[in-house]
Amino acid sequence: MEKIKLHDKTFRLSIPYGEIESAIDAVARKINDAYRGVEGTKAILCVLNGAIMFTSELMKRLDFDTELITMKLSSYAGTASTGEVRETMTISGDVRGKHLLIVEDIIDSGRTIEVLYNMMKDAGAADIRICTMLLKPGCYVKEIPIDFVAKNIPDDFIVGFGLDYDELGRNYKDIYVLDA
Ligand code: IMP
Ligand code: MG
């Protein structure tokens, strides 16, 4: 499909599935190389819901034994006066002492990944590496190194392959960009 409509907006095809697949093949090879010889328990942390499709494709390509832990981050506005945003998390397993690979769908400003990284450090992970399917390098303003990036993209709003616009669009296997 060249164009899709979700809620009130139209999106046009941007990254076809074949291209996503090749990018995942390449990043999986880098991850396999990086973890070769690493002793101890490995765990993948899949950040729900967006990273679910990427995580499943990535895991099939990994050649080392790893646990799978899922977590969901929900942001909510705090006091109206400060406009503070806090995160609550629900995590399916224990990361303490494990070699943790955080798997994200997309990193934009880096605000989410920074919060996550610090939470996992506090939770006692032995070491933490980050893998994202997509990175918007023009938007990323944080210091935390992003160890593995399947694909860099421009600063546009996209949907598909797990990514949503107001909860729709996650099921498309191609990636679509907002049609201006
Ligand atoms: P950050 O905290 O600014 O890095 O944003 C990361 C989160 O914002 C991701 O986990 C997504 O949920 C969401 N996000 C950022 N860019 C997009 C996009 O282009 N499409 C859909 N969701 C996005
Ligand atoms: Mg997300």
Structure explained in plain terms:
This protein has 180 residues and is α/β, with parallel strands linked by helices. The chain has a single domain (3-76, 84-178), classed as 3-Layer(aba) Sandwich (Rossmann fold). The chain contains three helices and ten strands; from the N terminus they run E-E-H-E-H-E-E-E-H-E-E-E-E. The strands form two sheets. It has a six-stranded mixed beta sheet with strand order 5-4-3-6-7-8. Strand 4 (67-77) and strand 5 form a beta hairpin. The longest helix is centred in the N-terminal third of the chain and has 19 residues, at 17-35. It binds inosinic acid and magnesium ion.
Short description:
The protein has 180 residues and is of the alpha/beta class.
Give structural attributes.
binds inosinic acid; six-stranded mixed beta sheet; four-stranded antiparallel beta sheet; 180 residues; binds magnesium ion; 36% strand; Rossmann fold; alpha/beta
In CATH terms, what is the fold-level topology? Rossmann fold
Distinct ligand kinds: inosinic acid, magnesium ion
The domain count comes to 1
Helix count from the secondary structure assignment: 3
Indicate the radius of gyration in whole angstroms: 17 Å
| Global morphology | globular
The assigned CATH architecture is 3-Layer(aba) Sandwich
The low-confidence runs, each spanning 5 or more residues with pLDDT under 50, are: 77-85
Helix content: 10-25%
* Main sheet attributes: strand count, strand direction, barrel closure: 6 strands, mixed
Number of strands: 10
Tell me the distance between the termini: 17 Å
Q: What is the CATH first-level class name?
A: Alpha Beta
**How confident overall, as mean pLDDT?**
93
Quickly give the structural class.
alpha/beta
Query: How much of the sequence is in beta strands?
Result: 35-45%
What is the succession of H and E elements? EEHEHEEEHEEEE
In what order do the strands lie side by side in the largest sheet?
5-4-3-6-7-8
